[in-house]
Design brief:
Layout: H1 2-14, E1 20-23, E2 27-30, E3 54-55, E4 65-83, E5 92-96, E6 106-109, E7 118-122, E8 131-132, E9 140-149, E10 156-157, E11 159-165
Antiparallel strand pairs: 1-11, 2-4, 3-10, 4-5, 4-9, 4-11, 5-6, 7-9, 8-9
Length: about 170
């Protein structure tokens, strides 16, 4: 019910013609906090505070380093924005999730120039990449977004924003 109310409110705020809304994740976790420092915990990626940031430790686990966002319900995700440095658009990566591939592979902008990233949308319990959305919709359906560096580099972001299609 709360997901429906969120979508309805987002629909009303964005206007009746809007087809894409920002989905605010309900929680975040990552592979490990840099130096165990509280100021780099995972929730800073979704706190809407441009002064805070999330930083993972190097190495991670067998998946490399990663940040996982729980969307609180299933959405048809169109794109994911990763803000690497404050609110400066030169350091924003936009990963499009409409290619029908396993990952959100198309990236515009900064795109993790020094740390190649993989962005995946999937449903809980199915980390294989989730179902692709309807080809007409141009999105990937799931309740989780994961950002990962297979090279086990540190991940450092100020904000991660998720945008999804409104379901008709």
């Amino acid at each position: 019910m709360s997901v429906f109310i969120f979508i309805l409110v987002a629909y009303l705020v964005q206007g009746l013609t809007a087809s894409t809304v920002e989905v605010r994740p309900v929680s975040a976790e990552h592979s490990g906090t840099f130096l165990g420092n509280r100021k780099y915990r995972a929730h800073h990626a979704i706190d809407r505070n441009w002064r805070s940031k999330v930083m993972t430790s190097y190495g991670g686990d067998n998946l490399g380093t990663w940040l996982r966002l729980d969307l609180g319900g299933e959405f048809c995700v169109e794109y994911v924005e990763i803000w690497h440095y404050l609110h400066i658009t030169n350091y924003r990566s936009t990963f499009t999730c409409s290619e029908g591939a396993e990952n959100c592979g198309s990236c515009e902008g900064y795109c993790g120039k020094k740390t190649p990233l993989t962005v995946t949308v999937y449903s809980s319990g199915d980390e294989s990449g989730g179902e692709s959305g309807d080809e007409e919709q141009g999105c990937r359906r799931g309740d989780t977004v994961q950002v990962r560096s297979h090279q086990a580099h540190m991940l450092s972001f100020h904000e991660v924003k998720v945008y999804a299609k409104l379901d008709d």
